[in-house]
Structure to design on (834 residues):
């Protein structure tokens, strides 16, 4: 295993490499590997945190938890709520910020504020020739040519090894509260979530899951206390016509932590699939999947499915357009196949970034 | 002095393409001088470089046909929306064909449940918002010009409410585009993306027509807020106004708009829009939310402003007053031009970390004064982005030279503060020299490699963004 401790060392290792390299942060996603293992955990630490500018600059191997702790001291946070996959997959390791950006990780708040990608302001990385490239910086917006920051986000380490990131952070809200509707069927739940999202009450989470055997639809609002109370009251009125029993969650933060990390699937058997669809297709997907368990997030736009091992979910999707990713289990391609025009572009880009085909060949081929 | 790019002409190829397009498009293919000039660069101080012909496309199939013809003969294709870009984006340094998509102006579908819509590239932002109003929805990105959504996507435009709703990059869910090889790509379905494929959507957003021609855009929409209020507040210094902004952002008050106008700009707006605001640094704000939350936001802002010496703070929920205020802000460019009739306006576009904003604006003001330029400053201060609009006599070479030096000086100052030379107008031709200064040659080379991968013959809007 190679564990560079400086960017220069990292660049040298890549430049010297002659065969495949598996790029790894905390290794918490249970990904297949090939060739030499290159760990980013030696590139760790917060380089610059300026609460007044809402920005933090960190080395790519920094543990997410370390960053969250530092931000919390200034009452700030990573607003995209990164998901910890360890409980779901049964893996060990410590999630790193580089891994979060490489997989474009995002939790329930994505529907309001976006994913990791949307908070990435700048990146430094080493490409397949061992050259160091830097793009973006600490400004909230720029239009300086092609956006390499967004290109690195969600590229699963197949374009380069990130060494440093700068991220936008946001202040913590004063408080949060969650309205829950009990016993709704999937289609009704999606209708209720759509109505909440279409309102002007600035909903920051809309999910639906079976909790202790009963379906629960959760709608979260955050902000200043007075306004949160007002919005919960208004939403309750607005959603009354669904005829469900409603209440305000006793511990909103704990509920959303469970939903975010898909606690309902921890310690269960079966394959886990994560499917993004347009929100109104969520219920149809669940019906078509024949799953053992299902949870909807992003107002229906993200569906977590627990399936009998070895079931080909993609074959069951029929006409429903979406991306199905296999999160836990084997036997199928991890990623949804790209349509062929895009796949050509993707391959063309990869050749330019990594002409020797060093990085994560298994994922690049998936 | 901003340089335009000079490139060799492929005269034979161009002559052939002109013949073929005339035959296939008849009246919708124009080669008259005035229409060609109109489609070269018009809104800035950059010299006009007209295309050899302008074709008005009506469908994706027509766009494909045009790109194929041009690709066969290696002739440049320059996508054209409404031509309001400011850095020579639509100039034709190597000649070629301007593809005007203003007739592709259909709003194809609105999905009110999913808060999204699909539009053709020639739809303008005002057209879309007029259409959406009845459905209680709106599209938030509002650059100063009534630009096309295709052009806004291609330039990653942003406007006065980026602080709350982001830029085009945050609001484009997918695009359909005809690439240099004539193939059509669709970057994503309406589902959010989760595969290993790269983020082609955000590669196309901000690519300034240099990778492909965008033929359809899927946009994220917002519900019209239950309540909107606007406010204004005067400050003793620009610095005090910037300090206020920083604290507002840090408190997490979800302001929708927070704009700075310096005293010169206020004066210009007063004269142009017949208003009587105190001629001192001014913050204009807008709050979106429920009835209760806009009140609360306005109150909290008032308290912070007072701490920093803010005066004359007024907020209102009256639609009429609000429209008047924001119309004045939107007309700032035209108002400014009146300060020196006959002069041309040269806009800077630096953006710095919010913590450096006060320093950067103050330094710019001092330098403008030293140099004796007439130039108001307006800023999207919630993002750290501001514009100086220098009023210059473009017939006076000395003035032009000094203006160029000022622009360079400011760009370099911003870069030294961890900022950028362009927060929203883009690179086009005018800012190409700053790209490597800001990003380093290695990064510019990567961009060149991307361009080569997707457009090996360099036919898509050549001579912009990166030289290859
Ligand atoms: C008074 C004034 C105020 C302005 N204020 C702002 C502001 O606040 N914020 C801001 O961001 N900008 C602002 N601008 C700049 C300009 O309005 C924006 O850059 C706008 O997005 C350009 O859109 P357009 O339709 O005019 O595009 P055009 O000028 O026609 O084209 C711009 C670029 O996009 C390409 N392009 C156009 N259509 C397509 C397509 N369908 N496919 C691929 N490429 C395409 C062109 O080739 C060109 O490179 C302002 C300009 C003016 C004149």
């Amino acid at each position: 295993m190679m564990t560079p401790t400086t960017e220069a060392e990292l660049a040298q290792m890549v430049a010297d490499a002659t065969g495949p390299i598996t790029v790894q942060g905390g290794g918490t996603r249970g990904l297949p590997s090939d060739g030499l293992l290159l760990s980013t955990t030696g590139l760790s630490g917060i380089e610059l945190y300026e609460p007044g500018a809402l920005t933090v600059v960190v080395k790519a191997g920094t543990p997410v938890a370390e960053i969250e702790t530092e931000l919390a001291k200034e009452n700030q946070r990573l607003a995209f709520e990164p998901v910890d996959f360890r409980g779901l997959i049964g893996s060990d390791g410590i999630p790193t910020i580089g891994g979060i950006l490489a997989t474009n990780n995002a939790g329930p708040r994505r529907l309001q504020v976006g994913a990791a990608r949307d908070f990435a302001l700048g990146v430094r990385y080493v490409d397949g020739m061992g050259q160091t490239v830097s793009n973006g910086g600490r400004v909230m917006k720029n239009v300086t040519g092609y956006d390499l920051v967004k290109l690195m986000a969600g590229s699963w380490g197949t374009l380069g090894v990130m060494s440093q990131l700068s991220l936008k952070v946001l202040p913590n809200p004063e408080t949060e509260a969650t309205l829950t509707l009990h016993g709704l069927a999937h289609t009704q739940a999606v209708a209720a979530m759509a109505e909440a999202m279409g309102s002007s009450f600035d909903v920051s989470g809309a999910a639906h899951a079976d909790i202790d055997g009963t379906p629960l639809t959760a709608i979260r609002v955050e902000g200043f206390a007075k306004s949160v109370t007002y919005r919960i009251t208004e939403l309750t009125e607005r959603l009354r016509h669904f005829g469900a029993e409603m209440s305000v969650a006793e511990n909103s933060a704990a509920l959303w932590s469970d939903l975010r990390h898909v606690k309902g699937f921890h310690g269960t058997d079966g394959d886990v699939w994560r499917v993004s669809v347009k929100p109104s297709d969520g219920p149809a997907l669940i019906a078509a999947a024949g799953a053992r368990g299902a949870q909807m997030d992003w107002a229906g736009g993200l569906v977590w499915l627990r399936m009998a091992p070895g079931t080909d979910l993609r074959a069951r999707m029929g006409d429903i357009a979406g991306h199905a990713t296999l999160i836990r289990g084997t036997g199928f391609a991890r990623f949804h196949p790209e349509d062929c025009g895009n796949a050509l572009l993707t391959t063309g880009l990869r050749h330019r970034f990594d002409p020797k085909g060093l990085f994560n060949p298994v994922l690049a081929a998936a | 002095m901003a340089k335009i790019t000079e490139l060799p002409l492929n005269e034979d190829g161009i002559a052939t393409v002109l013949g073929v397009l005339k035959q296939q498009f008849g009246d919708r293919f124009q080669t008259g001088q005035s229409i060609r000039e109109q489609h070269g660069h018009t809104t800035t101080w950059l010299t006009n470089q007209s295309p050899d012909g302008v074709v008005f496309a009506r469908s994706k199939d027509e766009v494909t046909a045009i790109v194929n013809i041009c690709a066969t003969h290696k002739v440049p294709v320059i996508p054209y929306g409404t031509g309001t870009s400011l850095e020579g984006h639509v100039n034709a340094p190597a000649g070629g064909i301007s593809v005007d998509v203003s007739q592709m102006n259909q709003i194809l579908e609105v999905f009110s449940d999913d808060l999204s819509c699909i539009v053709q590239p020639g739809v303008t932002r005002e057209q879309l918002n007029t259409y959406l109003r009845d459905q209680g929805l709106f599209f938030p990105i509002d650059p100063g010009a009534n630009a096309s959504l295709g052009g806004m996507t291609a330039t990653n435009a942003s406007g006065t409410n980026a602080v709350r709703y982001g830029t085009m990059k945050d609001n484009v869910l997918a695009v359909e585009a005809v690439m240099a090889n004539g193939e059509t790509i669709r970057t994503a379905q309406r589902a959010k993306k989760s595969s290993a494929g790269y983020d082609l959507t955000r590669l196309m957003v901000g690519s300034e027509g240099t990778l492909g021609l965008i033929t359809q855009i899927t946009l994220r929409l917002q519900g019209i807020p239950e309540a909107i209020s606007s406010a204004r507040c005067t400050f003793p210094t620009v610095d005090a106004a910037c300090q206020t902004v920083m604290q507002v952002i840090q408190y997490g008050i979800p302001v929708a708009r927070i704009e700075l106008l310096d005293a010169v700009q206020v004066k210009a707006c007063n004269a142009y829009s017949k208003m009587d605001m105190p001629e001192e640094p001014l913050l204009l704000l807008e709050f979106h939310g429920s009835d209760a939350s806009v009140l609360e936001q306005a109150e909290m802002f008032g308290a912070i402003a007072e701490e920093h010496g803010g005066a004359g703070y007024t907020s209102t929920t009256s639609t009429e007053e609000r429209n008047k205020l924001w119309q004045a802000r939107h007309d700032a460019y035209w108002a400014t031009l009146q300060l020196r009739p006959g002069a041309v306006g040269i806009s800077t576009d630096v953006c710095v970390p919010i913590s450096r904003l006060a320093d950067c604006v103050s330094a710019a003001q001092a330098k403008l004064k030293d140099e004796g330029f007439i130039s108001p400053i307006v800023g999207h201060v919630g993002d750290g982005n501001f514009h100086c609009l220098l009023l210059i006599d473009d017939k006076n070479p000395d003035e032009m030279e000094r203006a160029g030096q000022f622009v360079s000086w400011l760009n370099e100052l911003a870069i030294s503060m961890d900022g950028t030379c362009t927060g929203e107008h883009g690179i086009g031709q005018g800012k190409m020299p700053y790209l490597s200064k800001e990003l380093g040659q290695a990064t510019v080379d990567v961009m060149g490699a991307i361009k080569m991968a997707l457009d090996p013959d360099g036919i898509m809007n050549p001579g912009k963004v990166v030289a290859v």
In short: Chain B has a mean pLDDT of 93. Chain B has four domains: 11-102, 107-223, 227-332, 334-424. The first helix of chain B runs from residue 11 to 25. Chain B touches chain A through 95 residues (CB under 8 Å).
